[in-house]
Structures are given as structure tokens and as C-alpha cells.
């Protein structure tokens, strides 16, 4: 892994003095807590299916690839091959590593520093013995390393290998004959060369993990609305059980302008994380910003015509006059209505314990179509729609689905004298439910983006709505 260490040391020194978050999120960022089990799983998965197996460890069935290949470090002319370290022992020829058991991973988080990472593996060596017979040896090896957590020049969390050593365990001769004197040479040589051969495995594991951690810095599109860019707001913190990242969401319009909406007046009190779980806290700010973008893009405006509502929902002047006959009896009967909803202010999202609501202020203009001519204004109403939000996580987003709880209106102007406009609220609510809310939910398909945190999948996460935030928790 290529590192710029001169620029890294001040960050590491400052970060090492820090302590984990005590439950208050002072910024409007997205707080991610990665459990140590999740880190261990990522390391193990990188060994199983990643490029490490192909490019560093090699495979028994494909000996022409990676370090174990005939042209690689351990192949012909390599450290352990004929002509290499063992070339001085004429009685041995071609002894090289042919097998490397998939390492078992164990790790321990080191508060204020990083990670103690151990890989336990078995090495199989094949060659020719003194009598020309097949020689096979097996050795147990424990690779021990200390890894620091810091911030890269790009601003991403990064794991840095600080120290690596190997402890050679039991060596056994599984095939062939080897005199004790030569066995001692083999043992001494393995002590010398194994650190150089196996510590690159750790370095390659960290390279894969740093790619995952680097994905935190990502640009997530919000459809036609804009995008969200995630960056680190503060230096990473580490405790005995988890790594904590305070991730700052930067929301941009389609034109690339940074969108800045009001932030919560007080810090978010984040609930404690249980062991063996990872956690992401999504702030109210992101919800308000997405709805603010919808409003500024005109995506919350709608003209409702009879074609948008089912026949069971009346939308004619006759139906309207029947609701308030004393005020609207002069309306020409049987004419189709047009409801024009315009949202001129950003909606307000409220996140409280176990409930999420959205309040959308709207100017509602009621017009009718005369037999010939353009629509004529009847009423202008100031309305406030209060909608309940159902939240559901996926791997990359937090999805919202809205349903109308209530609609309240006041009369702004009318062709007739003032009247009790609350008598129109039930009718207007029916129209909004069947015509406006479905369109709103389609626009909300953009969702609330989640940062990519070590490939943790939050699709099946437990969801908790707290004051000014939503917490997603997934078992490691």
C-alpha cells in the first residue's frame, strides 16, 4: 500500500489522543459505527474471494499465477527454489512453497491506535530429497501485525501496516526422508524468509480493506434533483468494540451548487451500540435537504384534473357547490374542476421517537372549465398537508412512502363571500390521497442515500426513529 507518511503522522498523533463518541452527534453528519466483527468478516472475505488469493497467495491448481507461479517470487530461481536460498544445500533441489492454507483471521481493536491483526496459516513445501525422492513438509505459521487507523490524503479512513512479524510453529515432514542436519537448515531458513513472504499478505489485505473504506468518499446521485457527496467530518475514532466515522453529507444541485438547509438546533443523542452490531445514524438534515430539493425543482407541484382521480372522487362544480350550498350555489353546474397545488416553501420533516412526519405547505387554487374559454378561478386556499412517513432501508438507501394524515385549509380568496372552508377538507383530502400522494411517492424513489461503509449491507437493518435522526442497526 502506497502511503504519504509525512502528511499522515500529524493526523495519527492527533487522532490517537481522541476518545470515542459518548453519544452526542454535534454535527449534522451521518455517524457510522463499524463493529470489529464486521472488520474481521471483511478481512476473511478478502482472503476468500478477493485478488489476494490469486495475486499473492497463488493457488495449487494454478501454479503459474501470483507469487507461487513458476515465474514468481517462489518459483524457479526464487527464494525457496533451486538456485535460491536452498541452492547452497546441494542435497535439496527445487524446494518451494506449493500450498498455503487459507489463513484464519483474529483481530483486536486497539483504542487510540488501530488494530492487532493475526493470520494463522499452514505452509506446504514440496521438493526433492537427498535421495531424489519426493520431499513434502508442512509448517504452521502465525503472522502478527499492528495496523494503525488514520486518514489518507484523499480524506478517507485508511489502515496502515506499522509492524509485521511471523512466528513459526510446528514443522512436520509428511513425505520423504530428511536428515536432522538438513531439517535444521530448513527450519532456520524458513525463520528468515517467511516474514518477507507472508507479510505482503497482510499488506494486500489492507489494500482491499482500504478500497472498501475509501468508498465512504462517494458521490450518490439523487435522480434529476442533484447528488450527495460523503466526506469525513472528523478523524476516525476507535474503541474496544468498534470504529466510529463521522461522515459529512454535502448535497449539491444538478448545477453543482452546494445546498445548505437549516440544521437541527441541538446535538443528536445517539443511542449506544450493542456488541456484534454495526450502526448508521441518518440525520434529519438529509431528509430536509431531499424535500428541499424536491420543492425547489418544482417536483411537489401538481395540477389535478378529473383524469387523475377515479370516478368515485367528485371533481365538478356541482359536487363542490353541494358541500357549501349557501356560499357556492351560483356556480354553473356540471363543469369540471382543476386543482392547482403549488408548494412555495420547503416542507418540514419531523423525526421523533418512533414516528416520522412531513408537513407540506401548499397554495391550492380551485378553478373550473367553462364550456368555452380558459379556466376561471373560484377559490384560493392556504393548505397544510401532514403526511406520515413509512421508512424502509435497502442496501444503499433509506426509502420513504408517504400517506396523508390530515389536510387543513384556510380561505385566502373566493368569488363568493367568506364561508367555513373546513367543510371542504374531507373532499380535498380524498383528492390529495388519490392524485397527489401517489405522484409524491414516485418522486421520493430517489430515497435518502446511505454511505458505503466497509460493504456493510443495511437492507435488513433494524430501524429506530429517534429525535432528529434515524438509526439503522445490523447484526455483524
UniProtKB/TrEMBL annotation:
PANTHER family in the record: BPI FOLD-CONTAINING FAMILY B MEMBER 3, BPI FOLD-CONTAINING FAMILY B MEMBER 4-RELATED
Name listed for the protein in its UniProt record: BPI fold-containing family B member 3
Major location (coarse): secreted
Molecular-function GO terms, alphabetical: lipid binding
Family according to the record: Belongs to the BPI/LBP/Plunc superfamily. BPI/LBP family.
Organism this protein belongs to: Catagonus wagneri (Chacoan peccary)
Keyword Transmembrane included in the entry's annotation: no
Signal peptide: 1-23
InterPro entries: Bactericidal_perm-incr_a/b_dom (IPR017943), BPI_fold-BPI/LBP (IPR051660), Lipid-bd_serum_glycop_C (IPR001124), Lipid-bd_serum_glycop_N (IPR017942)
Any Pfam family: LBP_BPI_CETP
Keywords carried by this UniProt record: Disulfide bond, Glycoprotein, Secreted, Signal
Cellular component, GO, one term: cytoplasm
Annotated compartments: Secreted
Entry function: May have the capacity to recognize and bind specific classes of odorants. May act as a carrier molecule, transporting odorants across the mucus layer to access receptor sites. May serve as a primary defense mechanism by recognizing and removing potentially harmful odorants or pathogenic microorganisms from the mucosa or clearing excess odorant from mucus to enable new odorant stimuli to be received.
Location of the Lipid-binding serum glycoprotein N-terminal domain: 33-275
Coiled-coil parts of chain: none
Cell wall biogenesis/degradation found in the keyword field: no
Residues in Lipid-binding serum glycoprotein C-terminal domain copies: 274-474
